[in-house]
Every structure is written in C-alpha cells, then in structure tokens.
Amino acid sequence: MAEIPTAGGPVDSGALGRTLIHEHVFVMTTEVQANFKTDWDEASNVADAVEKLTALKAAGIDTIADPTVIGLGRYIPRIVDIAKQVEINIIVATGVYTYADVPMYFRLRGPFLPGLDRPDPMVDMFVTDITEGIADTGVRAAFLKCAIDEPGMTPGVERVLRAVAKAHLRTGAPVMVHTHPGTRRGLEVHEILQQEGVSPSSVCLAHSGDSPDADHLSELAEHGYLLGMDRFGVDAYLPFEQRVGVVAELVKRGYADRMALAHDASCYFDWVEPQFLEAAPNWNFLHISKDVLPRLRELGVSEEQIDTMLIDNPRRWFETAVNFR
Ligand SMILES: [Zn+2]
Predict the structure, then answer these.
(1) What pTM was estimated for this model as a whole?
(2) What confidence tens digit (pLDDT) does each residue in 242-297 have?
(3) Distance 264 CA to ligand 1 centre (A)
(4) Cα-to-centroid distance, 146 and ligand 1 (Å)
(5) Alpha carbon distance 180, 202 (integer Å)
(6) Domains, in order of start, for the chain
(7) Dist CA 63 CA 65 (whole Å)
(8) How far is the CA of 118 from the centre of ligand 1 (A)?
C-alpha cells in the first residue's frame, strides 16, 4: 500500500485498479497552438476529453498513467480541471521528450560543455515536480518520462536519460522510457541505466509492443524491465494479430508479470492531419476492453494473467517510490 499522487488527489496504490500504463489526455504543440489558428477549441476539447474518459471508466478501466511531459505539451491546470469532472484517476509525469536534442532552454545550462562539471538543472526540476508539485497546481508527478527513438543515443537523449535516472535515485519515482524496439534501443537504455545504478524493476520500456520479436523482448523482461505493450490500435506500426500474438507468446514464456497494457492514444493529438487518425479507427481508449482482451482470452491468456498485466504490474511499478531505499 502506498499513496500515489494523481491529478485528482492522492489514491492508495491498492485502489488504482485496472490501469492503462500509457495514455495521453492531450498531445499538443503548445507554441503552435498559442500562435496559429488550428482545430483546437478549449471548451469543446475539454468536454470531449471528459466524455472519452467517462466512457473508459464505464468500460472498466480505473486509472490512466499520462506521460505527457515537456515536449508533448504538458499543461497540468487543464488536466486538473478534467480530473474534477471524471471518476477515472489520471496520474501525471515529469520529464523531457526528445529523440535528438535537449530543448533550447536547457542547451546552454548545466553540463553543456564536455568536462564542465555542473549539475543538470533538469534534475532539480524533475525532483521538485515529484516531491512538491508541478508549478502552482499542487499536483505531484508520480513518474519520470524520457525517450529514445530511431536516431539512437544522441548527446541530448543521453543527457535527459541520465537526468531522469538521477531524479529517480533521489525520489524513487518509477521511470518510463519511450523506446524503439525495432532497433533494440532498450539495450542501449539498459547500458546507461546500469551505469547510473537504476534497477530495471523501476523502469517501463514503453512501446516494446511495437515489436513482434519475442526473443528480444524476453531478454529485456529477463533483465527485469516492465514492458509497455502500449500501442494497441497503432496497427500501422504492428498489426492487431501480431500485437496480441506477442503478448500471448510472452505470457506463455512466463512473463505475464513483466508486461503492462495501453494504447498510447489521446483525446486530442496535433501531430498529424485528421485523415491520418481516421485511417486508424482502433487507436482509441476502448480498443483494449472491446477487442484486445477478448482476443487474448481466445489465445489462452487467463483472467488472472490479464489482471496481473492490468492491475498488479502497474501497481507494483508505482509502488517503486515507496519501496525505494
Ligand atoms: Zn506516448
């Protein structure tokens, strides 16, 4: 039992219930939205999010973890407003999302020249979000988030990953790393986190489920990582049958306790044209409840194993902070 901060106030870890480990309320390019006319409309998009999150709760999901950090348009006051209107728990994060460089704000701060032994200001910012709260909202972040993608371990990506590791070691907050399993980026993450002294059991390797390579994923599970099988509905990256197939295969291999499920969906997402989203009809919050769980059952995954992935594993990951010594 542990108290987990959410946008609607602290929740006992035992009451998190069925948890989707990686969903966004809004992913938006804040500076573009503030300066150009787009299809964003504050009132209607907030109402739409309330409706979608209410439907998700009605489908039996009690909690979402929202890894929307700097680079993805994090704005917690709006999330707090939504949290007040829904029953589902929304857990928020701190961190920086980049595939290449650090944001300009950080570029000339901290350890920007090799050999310059100055602390990275990101670390204190992340720690404050976790221990005191985000800006003036009073809402604490419950996990850390960063990313590595096809470009690999660039200097900027490595800097954020090490800052996240240091903030984790100071707070115990669990870590989520966006990865690109097609290029086995998880192993590069493993190398840096080992150097920093981070236990794999505190770390979720997001987007592991984009790969059908059960041997590679087994290797990561064997290290102790929690694998994010978290893009159900993004069929363009991996079709439905392969996505459910690799989960069922890993369950067969004994790794039900190393996986968590989600869609990586959003109520609003401004990175693509609306037609793109129309071409991905399964990429919504209800796909797991409606299609994925029934198919997993057909493939021999038991109710208990589903509960392990939806309830026990996210809970254990969020309890990292409390068990941390
Ligand atoms: Zn995401």
Answers:
(1) 0.96
(2) 999 999 999 999 999 999 999 999 999 999 998 888 889 999 999 999 999 999 99
(3) 5
(4) 10
(5) 19
(6) 3-323 (3.20.20.140)
(7) 7
(8) 31
